[in-house]
Amino acid sequence: MHRRSRGVSIGLLLLLSQIFQVGINNVPPVTLATLALNIWLFLNPLKPLLSSCLSVEKCYQQKDWQRLLLSPLHHADDWHLYFNMASMLWKGIHLERRLGSRWFAYVIVTFSLLTGVVYLFLEFALAEFLNEPDFKRNCAVGFSGVLFALKVLNNHCCPGGFVNVLGFPVSNRFACWVELLAIHFISPGTSFAGHLAGILVGLMYTHGPLKKIMESCTGIFPSNIDYPGQQYYFNSSGYSGYQDYYPYGARGAYEDVPRNYDTYTAGLSEEEQLERALRASLLDQGNRRSSPPAYGFRLSPEEEMRRQRLHRFDSQ
């Protein structure tokens, strides 16, 4: 099949603007590679969206297992890409510094695969329990399930704090659950099962056996939560790059230095940025005919048929 590349759009421009405000040299390598891969596949998708989304019917019943790899890396539209990758930028800077680049890459790959597997299990269970076969045809695409897993991990690494969800302070302990409900209240077309799958995978890592299983599967690189060997250093503009830093004169010692992210977030928290972007997206989509669903990655069978007729996602 011939696949047509997508053009540059508002959401993509906003994402690139945010990345350049941070500075490419200041984004950790695995985070930067993840951003670059998602942007590249948005502009040059390997397959049409309907051939890369994940569902029980397509993946399990028709044995199209490559969708487990393709679905997290493809996005429905530019706003979907922007929301996910802006969140990935913020989480990646935090977590890759803590975990180390090699372990963080391992976490990203593992979370991407497991989130898809758990999503399939949830949809299959719902279809069987409710005797509703349409759940097996729900097709999911996007990186947001992985981001929910990373949010659980990030909140576990930084306990005791509060985040802003739709203007209300919420403890980190409950933030993922509140955001899960808030996103589906604001944008009902999103995949609840996909986001829930990400939360469950994150909990499997932080409170379950997943981390130990991952460590037992590889002796190449252990998890280094403190990640002392590489620290950011500052100038008046914010981050200037990386340097080896051992505050107590020995490898293995760590000093948690407060970080100032306001230089590239205009003083907004991640949740406030997401809320603002959601409002902008809904307003933008309200002005576009035959627009794709709001943030998230659920495509109903009816929407799939409509998109094929409108050639929204080129399948030729």
Please give a structural write-up.
- With about 325 residues, the chain is mainly alpha-helical.
- The chain has 13 helices and six strands.
- Strands 1-6 form a two-stranded antiparallel ribbon. The chain has a two-stranded antiparallel sheet with strand order 2-3.
- A hairpin with a 2-residue loop joins strand 2 and strand 3.
- Helix 2 runs antiparallel to helix 5 and helix 7 runs antiparallel to helix 8.
- The C terminus is likely disordered.
Residue fraction in strands: 5-15%
Integer average pLDDT = 75
Sheet with most strands: strand arrangement: 1-6
Structural class: mainly alpha
Q: Kindly state the percentage of residues in helix.
A: 40-55%
Shape: globular
List the helices and strands in order: HHHHHHEHEEHHHEEHHEH
Number of strand elements: 6
The N- and C-terminal alpha carbons lie at a distance of 5 Å
Number of helices: 13
Low-confidence stretches: 225-267, 288-300, 306-316
Radius of gyration: 20 Å
